[in-house]
Every structure is written in C-alpha cells, then in structure tokens.
Design a protein that fits this description.
single chain; 570 residues; alpha/beta; 6-stranded mixed sheet; 4-stranded mixed sheet; 22 helices
Length: 570
C-alpha cells in the first residue's frame, strides 16, 4: 500500500509540474506576442560577436555565385552594411536571419516587374495584417536559431560523420529489458545493480558519441524543426503566400523520410527561450536510452541525399521571415517608397534620409550625369554619399528607399570610400585606393551598368598628382553606363570636370551665441547646386583655441598661394 502511495505521489507531482510548465509556457507566449506588437515599427541596433557573424553569413557564402550581382566587401563596409543588417534584422530564426543578410548583399538585375511587385505586395500586406504577421513570427520564433554555427556549416559535412551501426542500439535496449526482467527473476538487489551498471555504461557511450557529433546533432535537429515549421506554415493557408506554400508542400513530400514526429526525441534545446520541463525530461531520457542518436543515424543518409531540397525549403522560409524585417523597416519611417527603375542614366530622390542617422536632414536631388560634391570639413559630404549608397542598396535588393520618391537605373553598385592601410599585407593607403578604384573601372570596361561612390579620390598621394589623376579617373567614369558620385576637397576638380559632372556642395555658417563673443560652426547638411566657395579648416583652428599667431601665419600662407599659385614661406 505504501509503495502505491509513493508511486501515486511521484506521478501526481510530475503531472502537476507539467501542468504548471504548460501554463507558464502559454503565459510567456502571450507576453512574447505583446512584445512583437510593441516592437513593430522600430529599428533596434544589435551587437554580434565574431563567431555569430560567421553564422549569419553562411547562406550568403553558399549562394554567393548564384545568378546575381554580389555586393563586394569594400562597398559593404563603406555602406556600414553590418550595422545596416543588424539594425534591420528582427528575425527570430536562422532561416530568416541568414536569408536577410544574403538578400541585402545580392542584386538580382534580371528580376521581372511581376517578381518585384509580388515581393512589395507581400511586404506591404505584412504591415497591414498584424494577425498573420504575429502568427508567422511565433512560428519562426519556435523554429529559432542554430547558435554560433549555421546549419550550412555542417550539412555538407554530414557525409563525413562516422555512423553507428543500428544493431548497437538494439543491444542497448535489450540490455534494459534484461535488467528490468532480472529484478523479478534474479532478485531486486542483483537486478537493480545490473540495471544501474548498464545505465552508467550507456551514459558514458552517450556522452562520448554526442561530444563527437554534437554540432551535427544541432544542425540535424534544426533541419527537422524546419520541416515542422514548414508543415505549420502550409497549414496556415496564408493567401499572399499561396505559391510559396504550394512549393513548400511539394518539397516536404520529397523529405518524407524525415519524420517531424521524431522531433521531441532529438531536440537539444528550446529555441524560444521558454523553460520546457518536457524537453529536459526527454534530454535526460536520451542520455541513457540514446533514442536521439538512433534517429540521427537512421535518417542521416536521407538528409545527405536531399541537401538541395532542404536548401530550397530554407530559402523559402528565409524569404518569408526576412520580409517581416523589411516590413518593420518600412513601418519605422514616415516616408518610404518603392523605387522606380528607369532605363536611362538617371537617379532622382525626394526627401531622402539615411535610415541609421538619427534626426537625419532630408535631401533631394535630380542627377542625369555624375555628381561632384564639394564642401568644407564635416559639412556632410561623406554622410550624403553613404545615404545615397545605402538607399541604392536597399532599393535594388529589397525594393525600399527611405525617401518620398526614388528612381534609378538598375546597376552594379561599387564604392571606394573608407579604405585603410594594410600593414599586414604590405599595402599602403594609396595602393589600396588605386586597387579599389581599378575594380570599378574594370566592371565598367566589361560593359556593366554601374553606380559608384568615391570619397576624396586618391587622398593618399600629393596634391598635384592627385588632382591630375583624379580628373582623368572621373572622366573615365563619365560614361553612359555609369552614374558616379564623388566628394572632394579639391575645388580645382569642379573646374576641370565642369563639362562632365554637375557640381553640388554643402555649406556651413559661423555664428556667435547670444551674449557671447565666441563663435561656433553650424552645418545645415542641405545639398546645394554649384561649387563650394568656403573653407573652414583654419577657422576651426581658431575656434578651438589654437595659438593666434600660428593661425594668422597659416592664413597668410594660404592666401598667398591662392593669389600667386605658389607656396612661399612667411
């Protein structure tokens, strides 16, 4: 009787714990839904450690040579692409996160108007239909992420995993049956001793084998979890994703050998971050019985043979969740637009802003040939270039621009703006510059349509040769197949290239604060037509308290050069 009471108490305690866990999960899911609703329409910049960066780049690296133009590392760094990605990224699954990164770095120059319209329509509906958006986000949150390593880091290596013969597992299970039977046949003491010994042996085997293939197990679990999410999304029957759902259903049939009903036995963690007592119990059970290792070995070959099928499933799921991130981007600003792609050499924007610059000043422009931008230090030239660059990337990759209107010709995107000396590679700043610009000229000579952005062309060399070389480089880039944006301090270029480029400039003002004799500099950050007629470098030295005598001598040297064209010691 006492044994029955004890057993009843244990069973009752477990049932109560599972009920409390279930209620707790439901509550956390509801809180998660509230968080999703509250955070929609907000860009939140996140930081990732280097290992995590390798994870979200994996899909991009695998598909880098697809039939599209891939934005290279120089241009991506100039656009502060990693910050752009991490600010836009609100994906809760590795599928969405990795696909979003891939999408932001790949330009499909052959995308049809129908494909673009469909993508835009789906994104806009995700803004309007909160219920569908939340359902999808919950599904992707339950799918979760793989951690520091992408599933693609391991899926191609699964063939190298040493498989455990399946008969080994049957021996293990027979051993447990024999141990339980021995309790009744031989006696409780001997039987329990045998059973405990057998459990310890199995635990050692489990730990040893899981340590060897732990990362592969995580990837394998994610594949099964992805298929579970596929089934869930197909079952939602979302009208705007009818085509995607149909294809997902077809792909799922090709992977029937992988059963999602086995998921509870192979899951290694709970991806949404909700404490899961059942998962913990299954994990403990697997440590002794090794059902997860058995299923891994049972379905391993099937996964290897169907890598391309899974890749397509990953892509479709990734596209769907990444569109939620783009919908969030569009909802974060009052003015965004769908870019208009034109056939002629032309780029035009109305009230364009940089999505990552707080309280950004909006600028408008209408350029039918290259733009040469001048202005004094810190007036906004480089920020403007980055603003156009970032909006061009967003326009050509995810069909969004942070402007009231934005039109351009579809083109390859290049820049040469934020280069550094490569001491380890033995490359000077000047060498880095000329190599960077050469790749742009090579693309143009290959017949590509390009948009390029250059900041202080050849700043790494002397003034005379810089002006001469920069003039001829920019003349080469004045081409019917190129739209070039260049910023410079060299006013000489505005005269040498006035037949090739439209001149624009940024200005500053010096103001005295009320009740103060000191001046301060104020920038409008508004672009103006024409060439800059002001310089502020020496004035800033005065404002910042440099010695008066030094500043006066520098002024006389500067003015004398302007008057005579020669440098003469004071």
């Amino acid at each position: 009787m006492d044994k029955i009471v004890i057993i009843g108490f244990i069973v009752g305690a477990l049932i109560l714990a599972l009920i409390i866990n279930f209620v707790g999960e439901k509550k956390k899911v509801k809180n998660f839904e509230k968080k999703l609703k509250a955070n929609f329409g907000k860009l939140v910049r996140k930081e990732y450690d280097p290992e995590k960066k390798n994870s979200y780049r994996a899909y991009y690296k695998k598909h880098q040579n697809d039939n599209s133009f891939s934005i290279d590392d120089i241009t991506w760094n100039d656009a502060e692409g990693e910050t752009l990605f991490t600010s836009i990224n609100n994906c809760y699954s590795s599928c969405g996160e990795e696909y979003l990164y891939y999408r932001l770095r790949n330009v499909d120059l052959n995308a049809s108007k129908e494909d673009i319209d469909e993508y835009v329509s789906q994104t806009d509906k995700l803004i309007e239909d909160e219920e569908t958006r939340i359902k999808l986000q919950l599904a992707f949150a339950m799918l979760g992420k793989t951690g520091r390593h992408s599933v693609f880091d391991y899926i191609s290596l699964l063939g190298n995993v040493k498989r455990i013969p399946l008969f080994i597992f049957f021996i293990i299970w027979i051993g447990y049956i024999a141990g339980i039977a021995s309790i009744f046949v031989i006696g409780p003491t001997a039987g329990i001793c045998f059973l405990v010994t057998w459990m310890i042996v199995c635990l050692i085997l489990s730990i040893y084998n899981k340590k060897t293939i732990e990362a592969y197990m995580t990837s394998f679990e994610y594949i099964v979890r992805s298929l579970k999410t596929t089934e869930k999304i197909v079952g939602m029957k979302i009208p705007m994703y009818e085509k995607e759902s149909k294809r997902l259903a077809e792909l799922r049939k090709e992977l029937n050998g992988i059963r999602t009903s086995f998921l509870s036995f192979i899951q290694t963690s709970n991806r949404i971050g909700i404490a899961d007592l059942a998962s913990g119990m299954v994990s403990l059970f697997n440590s002794f019985v090794m059902i997860d290792l058995f299923l891994f070995n049972l379905m391993l070959k099937f996964v290897i043979d169907k890598e391309d099928t899974y890749d397509e499933i990953f892509s479709i799921l990734g596209k769907m969740e990444s569109q939620i991130a783009i919908a969030n981007l569009k909802a974060s600003f009052e003015d965004t637009c769908v870019p208009e792609f034109v056939e002629e050499r032309h780029i035009k924007a109305e009230d364009m802003i940089h999505p990552l610059v707080e309280n950004c000043v909006a600028n408008s422009y209408d350029a039918k040939r290259g733009m040469l931008i001048t202005g004094s230090n810190a007036s906004g030239k480089s920020t403007f270039l980055r603003c156009v660059l970032v909006n061009t990337i967003l326009a050509e990759t995810v069909y969004v621009a942070c402007a009231k209107n934005f039109s351009l010709k579809k083109s390859y995107i290049y820049s040469s703006m934020s280069l550094k000396d490569s001491l380890g590679g033995g490359e000077s700043y000047y060498m880095a510059e000329i190599n960077s610009i050469k790749r742009i000229i090579d693309s143009l000579e290959a017949g590509d349509n390009i948009i390029c952005f250059l900041d202080e062309v050849l700043r790494g060399t002397n003034t005379v040769e810089r002006v001469a070389a920069a003039t001829e480089i920019l003349r080469v880039l004045d081409n019917p197949n190129a739209m070039s944006f260049a910023a410079t301090h060299d006013i000489e270029l505005t005269y040498l290239l006035e037949e090739n480029y439209d001149n624009y400039f940024f200005r500053e003002e010096f103001r005295k604060e009320e009740g103060s004799d000191s001046e301060d500099i104020c920038f409008t950050y508004k672009i103006n037509e024409g060439r800059s007629d002001t310089r502020n470098a020496l004035r800033l030295l005065e404002i910042k308290g440099y010695p008066t005598d030094m500043c006066e001598k520098a002024k006389r040297l500067s003015q004398n050069f302007i008057n005579t064209g020669e440098w003469k010691a004071d």
